[in-house]
Amino acid sequence: MLLKGALTLHLDPPDVQPLDVRIEGTTIVATGPQLDVLPGEEVVDLAGKWLMPGLVVAHHHLYSALACGMPLVDESPSNFPDMLAKVWWRLDRALDEESVEISALVGGVQALRAGVTTIIDHHASPSFIEGSLECLDGALGSLGMRRVLCYEVTDRGGPTQAADGLRAHHNLLAADGEKMRAVLVGAHANFTLSDDTLRACGDLARDAGVGLHIHVAEAVDDERLVGEPLIERMRRLGALLPGSILAHCVHLKPTELEAINDAGAWVTHQPRSNLNNGVGYAPIESFPETMAMGTDGIGGDLFTELQVGWFRAQEEGVPWAPERWLRALSSGASIASQLLGTRLGHIESGAQADLVVLDPIPGPPLESHNLPAAFLFRLSSSAVESVMIAGTWQLKQRQPVWLSAAALDSRAQEVAKTVWKRMEDGP
Questions:
Q1: Fewest 10 Å CB contacts: which of 48, 101, 193, 197?
Q2: Which residues fall within 8 angstroms of residue 382, CB to CB, at 6 or more apart?
Q3: Could you tell me whether strands 55-60 and 116-121 are parallel, antiparallel, or unpaired per DSSP bridges?
């Protein structure tokens, strides 16, 4: 396949070039300003539309895809622990196999429509643990999406559920030869994990040669509840591992953030979630250069996430130039490349053909020097027209190729009502 007439966007460093892109199988094999058409080659004329690498949500909770509009069972939460107990933990307990599948499909389609080709998910469904990752894998696989999965191990449901959470990883820990799926070992947060359970998470991850995916210092109370500095605790228990993802890190010191980077782990930033939960402003000026953007379950729209991050940083006086935010946006692809064992996030020969066609609103000329500003002030997910993953179109004209969005919407509405009813009836 030959994509002709595209204006290609490279995010880090910002670069805009008119290029044709040749794809064979799952891979980009050539790029150039005027590639000749080969005999029998399929040609797609992009007619000046923008072409960018697929985006990666570096920290997601697909299980929350049916949360929008759900009834509040108790009084409004007054703080973050209250929010967990009254909202999110009620929701995850109400999930069964059907609702996990529908949540993944709904969240996956939302993400596709925002130009996301890979989701790094952090899953919880205490009433449906065994088989939950296989369910997610099947749902996202049916959309053609790359995925990095884990189950959120925690002691909040007792030792049996914690053990079940560890076992949930076993079937999928083997490498995926097509480089479409990887697995990390999930852990909720230090304050819901005993020493023994956190150590067991680290042991499982180390034995499997993978990292952990865990919330760290999301709220100011985390360290007080544990009674020990969080990063020191993780290091003491063998849970600060290379290839790990530490989400939020709102209340860590610069020395702790440096220790994360030195360990070969990554930090993710979710500004909308931090604002929504009122947990404080993350010290991003001290975050490692490899910081990536997540959504924490608030949809899959990284355009909006990036813009909120920018404006919130401006309010705090953080001196980040626009191009630094594009680096954060592209870092997710660097993480996914390492975890999946392939090359993502580039439009060049040898990279995977994970590509997004943008049809933006009319505006000034797009050039390398103003590309960061375009992401902050001009682009939105509504510009996403089509999405290709591993050389196959998975979204065309904003519609998923392999399923009916209307049928999914109808089913999601019914399943959501059932989940909400269980939330009202449950403990």
A1: 48
A2: none
A3: parallel
pLDDT digits (tens, 9 = 90+) for 288-311: 999 999 999 999 999 999 999 999
120, β-bridge pairs:
148
With a threshold of 0.85, does the pTM exceed it? Answer: yes
Whole-number Å distance between alpha carbons of 284 and 206: 28
Specify whether domain 55-340 bears CATH 3.20.20.140. Answer: yes
Instruction: Give the per-residue pLDDT at 427.
Output: 65
DSSP strands (E only) in 351-402: 355-358, 384-389, 392-396, 399-400
DSSP 83-134: HIIIIIHHHHHT--HHHHHHHHHHHHHHHHTTTEEEEEE-B--TTS-TTHHH
- Structure confidence at residue 247 as a pLDDT band (50, 70, 90): very high
CATH number assigned to the domain with residue range 2-53+345-396, chosen from the 4 options 2.30.40.10, 3.40.50.300, 1.10.10.10, 3.40.640.10: 2.30.40.10
Handedness of CA 370, 372, 373, 377 (dihedral sign): positive
- Return the bridge partners of 252, or none: none
Using an 8 Å Cβ cutoff, are 219 and 212 in contact?
no
